[in-house]
Amino acid sequence: MNYPYNRRFIKLIRKTLNLTQQEMSNKLGITVQCFRTYESGRSRGSTFFHERMMEVFGIDLRQNPDLHKIVFSDPLKISAVAYRHLSTVEKRGND
């Protein structure tokens, strides 16, 4: 199964935060191999991954796949510049 919400947003979030896959996985407390499956959309992500995204970055990835925007649970957990950029992004399909 493929998870388009992950594929559309996780890489964008990581790049906006200027993190490598290794740095992102370290912050989340998961292996880089595991993170890569989430970023590529090959896996939807574990409950632990989703909880850590909210705890560390204030971003809720547990959304309906038809949602086209990033949902923030706590926008103060990332820089104001990153928040402004990510909050205006809208992605549809495989773009």
TrEMBL record:
Residues 10-64 form the HTH cro/C1-type domain. CDD domains: HTH_XRE. It comes from the Bacteria. GO terms for molecular function: DNA binding. This is HTH cro/C1-type domain-containing protein.
